[in-house]
Amino acid sequence: MSIKPITKDCLEQVMQQNSSIKEQIYGLVSDFNKRFNKSGLTAQEKQAFSVLKENNLIQIPIEDEHWGGAIIAKGGMKIPVINTAQPRVYQYFVAWHEIYHLLYDINLDEKTHNVAIDMDINERKADYFAAKMIFGDIYKYYYSLEDENVIDRIIKCMDAYKAPYKATLIELYEQAVEVYGDMDLKHTVLNHFDDKPKNLEGKFEGLELDPELVRSSFVISFGGLEQKVKKAINQNTGVSYHKDNYEFLIELKKEIKKEWEDLSK
Amino acid sequence: MSIELLFENRKTVGRKLWLVIKDNGYTKSSFSKLTGISRPTLNKLIDGDINNLATFENHLQKIFDKQIINADKLLKYSPKYQEKEETKLALSDNAPNEHSRNSRAQKMFDILEDIVHLCELYQT
Asked: This protein's superkingdom (chain A) (predicted)?
């Protein structure tokens, strides 16, 4: 679904929503850590992609700044999709957002029909889950930085947690208000919330940080589909359409690459 | 089966055609290449949105020429498998209401639809 962008004017409302779902989401975070981090991965973004890849993640670059990804649920299967034309930092957040939908969103359960669900709160749950998987004690980290410039500090937080600009500020706001009662930081966040720096790559470079985080990755992956089609070819030598489908799949990959060659230069 | 009768029932014909395509292991794009019907036109045919008899006949004929199915069987076609559950989506999409996708993005969504269809065919 389309999610209403969060601005400083609705930040307080977001906090109230977070507060109402906090207990549930903390439970899910705990459940996730017990059940799904089998390999003991410590890099949060690797962990997210690892879970999605186990579920046949499709990675495809789509030239649309608003479309981050999806879970496509059809006939008993749920396929995660990530838009790799978006900067990595968004991909990581979207990955966790989609994990919520993949594992915990009952609206996508094939046996659940016509669920009276508030989609706005459902999306907030996915975002809140993503934030809780990504951030540690960002408040302390923010104050551990010596930079005087607020934007520089925020960018360093983005780099440390591999999180998007607004998600970083929302988490900082929540911790400042609810945990530490820091009204100065609350107002600082509000003052900068709608002023995302235009040239993030340049800002990262200026602060001697790796700008790859705010660049697109343009990864193309069909989630193991090629191997499955190849297997079907080997197991059903008399059936010709598997071979046609394999060739078709390779053509699709070429088409995507061609579309993105110029743009990724 | 007369072309007029098929045209009268073009919505049903479209639905049946989509079942034929899926049951034979094709995607919209691969079927489009096979028959020489452009992808947008195939979409219209499947949606039952071709409102000109001559155009409708012309495109259906391309399918019949490939001997995938004939006119008599198309309208009565029953799927080999039960039609699968309707697609459900959870999107990460922050687009404002007035936002429209550009043609390159739309092309990628069409490709994504093909990939998802293949995933359906090859899921284990």
From this structure: Bacteria
The long-range contacts involving B61-69, CB below 8 angstroms and separated by at least 24 positions, are B62/B35, B62/B36, B62/B37, B63/B17, B63/B35, B63/B37, B66/B34, B66/B35, B68/B20, B68/B24, B69/B20
Domains of chain B, by residue range, sit at: 3-76
Running DSSP on this structure, what letter comes out for residue A1?
-
**Which residues 63-82 of A have a C-beta within 8 angstroms of B?**
63-64, 66-77, 79, 81
* Fold assignment, B3-76: 434 Repressor (Amino-terminal Domain) (1.10.260)
Residues 191-250 in A contacting B (C-alpha not used; CB under 8 Å): 222-223, 225, 228-229, 232, 241-242, 244-245, 248-249
Find out whether A174 and A189 touch, Cβ atoms under 8 Å: no
Residues of chain A with pLDDT > 90, as a percent, come to 69
Scan for tokens 């498998």, then name that residue.
Answer: B81
Tens of pLDDT, residue by residue over A126-156, are 999 999 999 999 999 999 998 889 999 999 9
> Which ipTM score applies to this complex?
0.87
pTM attached to this predicted model: 0.79
- Please give the angle made by the CA atoms of A137, A10 and A153, to the nearest 5 degrees: 35
Nearest CA in chain A to B34: A244
Indicate yes or no: CB of A73 within 8 angstroms of CB of B96: no
Is 70 exceeded by the pLDDT of residue A164? yes
Q: Does A87 touch chain B (CB under 8 A)?
A: no
Q: Quote the pLDDT of residue A165.
A: 96
Task: Compare CB distances from A225 to B108, B112, B115 and report the shortest one's residue.
Answer: B115
Taking an 8 Å cut-off on Cβ atoms, the answer to whether A107 and B90 are in contact is: yes
pLDDT digits (tens, 9 = 90+) for B68-103: 888 888 888 877 765 555 666 677 777 777 777 788
